[in-house]
Amino acid sequence: MKTRAAVAFEAKRPLEIVEVDLEGPRAGEVLIEIKATGICHTDAYTLDGLDSEGLFPSILGHEGAGVVVEVGPGVTSVAVGDHVIPLYTPECRQCKSCLSRKTNLCTSIRATQGKGLMPDGTSRFSYKGQAIAHYMGCSTFSNYTVLPEIAVAKIRKDAPFDKACYVGCGVTTGVGAVVNTAKVEPGANAVVFGLGGIGLNVIQGLKMVGADMIVGVDLNPDKEEWGRRFGMTHFVNPKEVSDVVAHLVELTGGGADYTFDCTGNTVVMRQALEACHRGWGESIVIGVAEAGKEIATRPFQLVTGRVWRGSAFGGARGRTDTPRIVDWYMDGKIEIDPMITHTFPLEDINKAFDLMHAGESIRSVVVF
Ligand code: NAD
Ligand code: AHE
Ligand code: ZN
Question: 0.95 exceeded by the pTM?
């Protein structure tokens, strides 16, 4: 079939909206009509050529919601008409990682996914006869896309697509980092670095679990109002203090119980670790750093009890946890609507990247 898609033909070039060819689902795969997709900073990072796994040409996008329109042979867990969220972190429930119960990072199809291919080693997308790479196993910047059934979460039908799509990455990543990765307890104090589409979800997760002090840190002063809107109690602009770590340690009475990096900046990651309380503070790295960047700190920071941890997709087990997060939204436990600051048709998708780089959006969503 033909489908409209925004194609990343080259790094650092705007996406081009073209009609691409899409092969139907093979065994164990499903064809999904994408109804809406968010634009996450990770899409921008890949388009900017900063991802060591970045491939071109490719169809980016990994924060979508849609409807199953066809299933391949052997598919049992979803059916035509089901509303689903594509998962860049699948959940096969059979691999060593899934069975370990220690991680959400299902490894069953990660190797082919990282090469822009379906699990059988081929691409379903092509343009003028040339294969186009899938992205993060999702490619939600296409009106139709194909995924393995282990990489789709079935969600309730009354959830609006233009909000539920955000659960496909940002909401789950932020709220999940609090609930699943850090397991923040009521009364804890926390510092969140970077108040964008991820950081604000960390803040609302912290509020939901009953954190006490919730400090937000951002270079953009406009983010103070945004943070307070979701439960932030204190705001720090690093440009306005001489030593941000010392300032945060003093503000939190000796260091935070939990800190979260939602910037992807490795200097900030170090600050986040060192702003933790001696003896027990845990710093969660969520931000994705540019290819080639490394983190550093004095080992003494770890010797004296601070913990450095990472979180991918909020530690969420995709098929099990994302439908629950959609329920939390529908039940009013978490908010999504105010964070969707801009909505565009696919033709205007490049505007979403411009707004993100200018710090003028929280989340832009493309509605097909
Ligand atoms: P965003 O652009 O919406 O927000 C980033 C925020 O960080 C902005 O408010 C910006 O002003 C702020 N910032 C930038 N540099 C800063 C600095 N030096 N100090 C303080 N604040 C600073 O991006 P996003 O969509 O929220 O994504 C944030 C990061 O999380 C990205 O690196 C993204 O790739 C990553 N991410 C990771 C996962 C995961 O599973 N681990 C999932 C989604 C996104
Ligand atoms: N490909 C990059 C790393 C990118 C990365 O860390 N991605 C996160 C999700 S970001 C969503 O917005 C993730 O889940 N990683 C786990 C995984 O298996 O990719 C690189 O550095 O090579
Ligand atoms: Zn993302």
Answer: yes
> Catalytic annotation on 169?
yes
Q: What is the band of 306 on the pLDDT scale with cuts at 50, 70, 90? A: very high
- Integer angstrom CA distances of residue 212 from 171, 187, 203, 219, 251: 21, 5, 11, 23, 13
Both 132 and 273 in one domain: the answer is no
**Enclosing domain of residue 115:** 2-168+336-367
Q: Do 33 and 113 sit in the same domain of this protein? A: yes
pLDDT in tens, 32-62: 999 999 999 999 999 999 999 999 999 999 9
Residue 365: pLDDT band by 50, 70, 90 thresholds? very high
Number of domains into which the chain is organized? 2
Residue 7 sits in the same domain as residue 44: yes
Q: For residue 29, give the CATH number of its domain.
A: 3.90.180.10
* Kind and range of the H or E run holding 321: helix 318-330
Q: Specify if 321 maps to a domain.
A: no
Average pLDDT score over the chain = 98
Question: Is 363 an annotated catalytic residue?
Answer: yes
Match 């997760």 to its residue by tokens. 205
13 is catalytic: no
pLDDT the model gives residue 285: 99
Query: How distant, in Å, are the alpha carbons of 24, 106, 109, 251 from that of 85?
Result: 18, 17, 17, 40
Taking the chain, what is the end-to-end CA distance rounded to the nearest angstrom? 17
The reply to whether ligand 2 has any atom less than 6 angstroms from the CB of 110 is yes
ipTM of this complex prediction, to 2 decimal places: 0.99
Best of 37, 39, 41, 50 for a ligand 1 pocket test (most atoms within 8 Å of beta carbon)? 41
> What are the counts of helices (DSSP H) followed by strands (DSSP E) for the chain?
12, 17
CB of 15 within 8 A of CB of 141? yes
Residues 20 and 78 in one domain: yes
Residues 93 and 161 in one domain: yes
Residues 241 and 198 in one domain: yes
